[in-house]
Give the backbone structure.
Amino acid sequence: MSADRLRTVEEQLAIVLERVRPLDGTRVPVAAALGRTLVEPLRAAVDIPVFDNSAMDGFAVRFEDVKDATDAAPVRLTVVGDLPAGSPLDPPIGPGEAVRIMTGSAVPSAADAIVPFESTAGGLADSLGEITVLAAPRGPGAHIRRRGEDITVGGELLPAGVELGALQLAAAAAAGVDDVVVARRPRVAVVSTGSELVTPGRPLERGQIPESNSQLLAGLAEGAGAEVVLRLSVDDEGDGPARAVVEASALGADAVVFSGGVSAGAYEVVKNTLAGAMEFAKIAMQPGKPQGFGATDDGVLLFGLPGNPVSAAVSFEVFVRPALLAMQRRTELHRPTLRLPAATGWRTPPERRQYLPAAIDRSDPARWTVRPATAGGSGSHLAGGLARAEAYAIVPADVDVVQAGDTVDVMLVS
Ligand code: AMP
Ligand code: MG
């Protein structure tokens, strides 16, 4: 590689992922597993449905008895039992008999079809005693949900490597599962650097700004399934970053995410104090060109992201999030992407891949478009524009300009 050739995003990500060590699995209750990553397949503990049950409120019948029922030739049946949901009964049904049944109740062994209230003369109002069936069910099995038609005991509901969301956990619960084996949550320390940074809400003196990257990076880390064990700011003077690594290690951190102090200025405190453990490289991306990465002797990953808020956000997406997901043994490390036409044109940097904070215009459902989230364009200092961003438009290094109507890749992050 020539000295001035920038490293590609893929090359840098490969270096990062090479250092990732997968975290151990741990068994947790389904109720506590939201956002965790399965590391063993999820298998059903009971059939879904658990037993043959009625799909309608109505009557369990012998199909033979009602197969010729019509408005003109109704069939009269005697109701010999009643099955509310949860009833353990399995009443016998003789010729000319029916049992009233509610949705979800177990279908009696003697019945092979359900006649809904809508197909009887009296409906619910006249449903105990004698009923008059005005229409035949479509055939044997009508309105019966069969045991195991969704999944049977031992069947795989989900493979290892997927995130457990509310829907996945609902399926686990429905299949009688009470605990799942998931990856331990990565423990992450978030360390902001910069002598100009002040806790948000405090009065600002000349030269000071609110510290926002720790909010950003802690939120993104939690969104990637991590637990934030340390969040602090250090000055540009002294050895704050090195001390932060010691403190993070003592807290069992798996990764330390620094922001700021990695570029080419005079006071690059991460670069100056952690040069032994980290490598500082230039990546062909914008924003996010200066990146630091390394690990301690104990294998704690050290990320040195550039300090501009947009740069830090993009760098997290591109390098830190995939690493945190890989630790959790997630199969898919990347955000979903769409290809959308640009609503307006914008300029792109030469020979670097652009990640532009973007908003999606959904006003025409048949033709979504993408536009820059910041009025000022791609400036990585435009932290307020992050408020409107829900995606990054990704423009290849060899594209010089995006024109309105051009199709671009859009990485969804919300
Ligand atoms: P640096 O990478 O340290 O040169 O920082 C680049 C720019 O990002 C500077 O304007 C910093 O003031 C700003 N910046 C760095 N860290 C933070 C932070 N934690 N919160 C808000 N802005 C920051
Ligand atoms: Mg700085």
In short: The mean pLDDT is 96. The helical segments are 9-19, 63-66, 166-174, 213-223, 240-250, 269-274, 309-327. The first helix runs from residue 9 to 19. The domain at 9-23+185-327 is CATH 3.40.980.10 (Molybdenum Cofactor Biosythetic Enzyme; Chain A).
